[in-house]
Every structure is written in structure tokens, then in C-alpha cells.
């Protein structure tokens, strides 16, 4: 593995991100959405049989809460305890995000902004060799804190058609009313537009493959979404005082993600870069998933990371750790060698549903606010003559004579 120039980091990130909404994938997702809107569960079932479980039957698609609870009891006790601990951490962090009503008392008007939870939310939980119970928790915690009335989890059906008891336990812990066993564009379409089995939701959140992302983008005119998640990303910024072994593990952990993850080390230290390169060559990683880059200084390394705006930014070692207050434009920042990025995926309490593809320039982690809508309430509460006069002057200028008359009447 060779060490590259810092300028190559941005070029590599741009190449990978162009593929997130590949036109061929978008066209395929559009056809799937159209099929689900016409044929409902039958179209989803055809998709599940093609990609997941060839023997799937219509009644296998949806698992209601009672059946989930029954399956959850088969989950190993040690995993139940681990999930309970993770849930406690995640729920506590999200509880601190609970929004409160905002009130403004002016001379003429009282204006209140009232937070209101969405009624129904669909959560996408990806699947690798197993379902990802951690993602069910990451979606369930903000939904629970927000007060969402109904949460439905959608996750691909296993190859053998079985129901994963660990995923079932996490779904129950997350407060899901049911599990819809499909993934990709078909699951997004079923959640967004409804089927005979599913009532349509108000928002679809959570990560998935490229077809999930494309479908969320296409459906976003009709349903709320959190973000457009692409391949997972990590940029580590480090000087020579960082622990090479810890960095190697973090890079290799990132490479475990499917879908072409993006894992990079940016360092001012050539000895550190060579040590990491040698270790990764021995351990092996999918080709193209890990990149090593040399930076003239730590501030320039941090600025390069901000240009990439990665999902995860790790500041490894004491010298890089001191730059934490200057870190910006990253989905989540992990400060210090002891703070493994993997903690954020499971038990730190932060949400691992994070912006990717450079969208951390404006987007944030999944949070309670994403599952809230705000109602603005306005009440005339004082003398209106001056307000009506000002409003009418602007309305007259815009040619809105009845707007002006409506305000004048109240004065």
C-alpha cells in the first residue's frame, strides 16, 4: 500500500460519491417504486424472492408486534443484556434532545412554535450476514423520545426465511409495532406509499444500500427522509504520537462495511504511515477501501478532512486530539485514541445514522428533531393599527389588495 499526496484525498472522495446516485440505480429504483405503487405487497414479494429468499410467501412479509416479542425470547441472554445497555446509553443521549415549545410575546401578536411528533415512521435496518440490531436501536431511540405513535422497522429477509431473534429483540426494545421483511427500493416504496399490509408512513429514516438511497431520494417529494446515506466513511487525522495499532484496527473496522466504504488516514508522520501500510498489507482489506495520505501539518490535515466532510472523523493521538475544537463538517468526531469509532456504532449513545457523501457540510446525525414537525400558532393579542398599516403598505406594493383589506378590517 502506497502513501499518497493530500490532494488525492479529495479526488478519491469525489470519485466514490459520484456513484451514490448512479443513473442506472436510480432508474431501477424508479421502476421498483412504480411497481410497488401499482401492485403493493405482490411487487415487494417478487423483489424479496429475487434478492433474498426464493421461497418467501406473502404471509412472511410482515411480522406483527406479538410475533416479534415471541421471537425475541429466543435471543441469547448475553446479547439481550448488551442490547439493553446500548439502548440505555442511546436513549439517554436522545432524551437530552427533546424539543420544547417556543413562545414569543410581541406587542401585537403572540407567536408559539409547538413541537409535534410524527404519527408513523418507517426505519430501514440493513442486513449483512445478520440483521443489524444496533441500527434498530438508533432509529427507535429518537422515535421513542419524540413520541412517535407507530414505528415500523423494514429489514431484508434472510436467505433461509428465518426470523432473527436478536433483531426481533432489538425491534421490540425500540418500540416497533412490526417488522416488514424487505429491503432496498421495495421496502422504501412500501413504507412511503403503503400496501395492503402497511399503512403509509410520514417519514422514512435509516441507512441502506444504493437502491435504498435512490428510492428515498425519489420518494422524498411524498414522504419525509433523514438523509441520503451512501457508503460508510472514516477519515483519521494523526501525528507521529498516535497508536498505530489502534489506527489499523479502526481502518480495518471501517473496511468491514459493505457497499464500498471509504477509510483514510491523513498524517504528518511518514514513519506512522509506513507502519500502518505494512500492517494493513499483512491483514488485508477489500481493494480500494483504505487510503493513506501525507499532510505537511495537522491544521492542513484537518482542513482536508473538512473538505471531504466525512461521516466519521477520528482525531488520533494527543497532538491531533488538541485540535478537536477546530474540527468541523463531519457527521461525528471521535476525539482521542481511546475513543474507537466503533463505540459510536454501538454503545456511546451517539447515533450512528450519519450523513455521508459529503452531506455533512449541511446535514447531521439522525436525531429527535428529524421526527418532529413544528406547528406555528399565531394570536392577535394587542393593538393592531400599526401592524395593519405596515402590512397593508407591503401588500399594496405587491398588488395584493384583499390581503391589505383583510388586515385593515382587523385594525
List keywords for this structure.
6-stranded parallel beta sheet; 18% strand; 411 residues; 44% helix; Rossmann fold; globular
Summarize the structure.
With 411 residues, the protein is α/β, with parallel strands linked by helices. It has helices at 7-18, 23-39, 41-51, 65-72, 77-95, 133-146, 165-173, 184-193, 210-219, 244-255, 270-283, 298-308, 318-321, 341-346, 385-397, 401-410; strands at 3-5, 62-64, 102-105, 109-117, 120-124, 150-154, 176-180, 203-205, 224-225, 233-238, 262-267, 290-294, 312-316, 332-335, 372-380. 44% of the residues lie in helices and 18% in strands.
Describe this entry's structure for a reader.
With 411 residues, the protein is an alpha/beta fold. It folds into 3 domains: 3-18 and 231-349, Nitrogenase molybdenum iron protein domain (Rossmann fold); 23-100 and 116-225, Rossmann fold; 381-410, no CATH class. It contains 16 helices and 15 strands. It has helices at 7-18, 23-39, 41-51, 65-72, 77-95, 133-146, 165-173, 184-193, 210-219, 244-255, 270-283, 298-308, 318-321, 341-346, 385-397, 401-410; strands spanning 3-5, 62-64, 102-105, 109-117, 120-124, 150-154, 176-180, 203-205, 224-225, 233-238, 262-267, 290-294, 312-316, 332-335, 372-380. It has a 6-stranded parallel β-sheet with strand order 1-12-11-10-13-14, with helices on both faces. A 6-stranded mixed β-sheet has the order 2-7-6-5-8-9, sandwiched between helices. Helix 9 links the parallel strand 8 and strand 9. Helix 2 (23-39) crosses helix 3 and helix 4 crosses helix 7 (165-173). The longest helix has 19 residues, at 77-95. The radius of gyration is 25 Å and the shape is globular. The model has no long low-confidence stretch (mean pLDDT 94).
Amino acid at each position: 500500500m502506497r502513501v499518497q499526496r493530500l490532494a488525492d484525498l479529495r479526488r478519491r472522495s469525489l470519485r466514490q460519491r459520484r456513484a451514490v446516485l448512479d443513473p442506472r440505480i436510480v432508474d431501477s429504483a424508479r421502476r421498483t417504486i412504480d411497481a410497488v405503487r401499482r401492485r403493493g405487497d405482490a411487487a415487494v414479494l417478487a423483489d424479496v424472492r429475487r434478492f433474498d429468499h426464493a421461497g418467501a410467501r406473502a404471509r412472511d412479509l410482515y411480522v406483527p408486534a406479538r410475533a416479534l416479542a415471541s421471537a425475541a425470547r429466543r435471543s441469547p441472554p448475553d446479547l439481550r443484556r448488551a442490547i439493553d445497555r446500548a439502548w440505555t446509553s442511546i436513549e439517554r443521549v436522545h432524551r437530552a434532545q427533546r424539543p420544547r415549545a417556543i413562545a414569543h410575546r410581541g406587542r401585537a401578536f403572540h407567536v408559539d412554535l409547538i413541537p409535534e411528533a410524527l404519527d408513523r415512521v418507517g426505519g430501514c435496518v440493513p442486513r449483512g450476514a445478520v440483521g443489524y440490531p444496533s441500527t434498530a436501536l438508533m432509529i427507535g431511540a429518537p422515535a421513542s423520545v419524540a413520541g412517535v405513535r407507530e414505528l415500523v422497522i423494514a429489514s431484508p429477509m434472510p436467505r433461509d426465511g428465518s426470523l432473527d431473534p436478536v433483531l426481533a429483540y432489538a425491534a421490540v426494545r425500540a418500540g416497533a409495532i412490526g417488522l416488514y421483511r424487505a429491503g432496498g427500493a421495495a421496502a422504501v416504496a412500501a413504507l412511503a406509499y403503503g400496501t395492503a399490509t402497511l399503512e403509509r408512513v410520514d417519514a422514512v429514516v435509516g441507512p441502506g444500500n444504493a437502491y435504498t438511497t435512490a428510492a428515498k431520494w425519489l420518494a422524498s417529494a411524498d414522504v419525509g427522509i433523514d438523509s441520503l446515506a451512501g457508503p460508510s466513511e472514516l477519515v483519521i487525522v494523526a501525528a507521529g504520537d498516535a497508536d498505530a495499532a489502534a489506527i489499523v484496527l479502526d481502518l480495518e473496522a471501517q473496511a468491514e462495511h459493505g457497499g464500498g466504504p471509504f477509510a483514510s488516514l491523513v498524517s504528518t508522520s511518514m514513519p506512522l504511515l509506513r507502519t500502518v501500510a505494512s500492517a494493513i498489507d499483512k491483514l488485508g482489506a477489500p481493494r480500494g477501501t483504505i487510503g493513506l495520505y501525507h499532510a505537511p501539518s495537522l491544521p492542513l490535515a484537518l482542513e482536508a478532512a473538512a473538505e471531504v466532510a466525512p461521516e466519521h472523523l477520528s482525531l488520533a493521538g494527543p497532538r491531533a486530539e488538541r485540535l478537536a475544537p477546530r474540527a468541523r463538517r463531519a457527521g461525528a468526531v471521535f476525539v482521542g485514541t481511546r475513543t474507537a469509532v466503533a463505540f459510536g456504532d454501538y454503545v456511546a449513545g451517539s447515533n450512528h445514522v450519519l450523513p455521508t457523501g459529503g452531506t455533512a457540510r449541511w446535514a447531521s446525525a439522525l436525531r429527535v428533531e428529524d421526527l418532529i414537525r413544528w406547528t406555528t400558532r399565531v394570536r392577535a393579542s394587542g393593538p393592531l393599527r400599526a401592524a395593519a398599516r405596515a402590512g397593508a403598505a407591503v401588500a399594496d406594493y405587491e398588488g395584493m389588495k384583499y390581503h391589505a383589506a383583510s388586515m385593515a378590517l382587523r385594525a
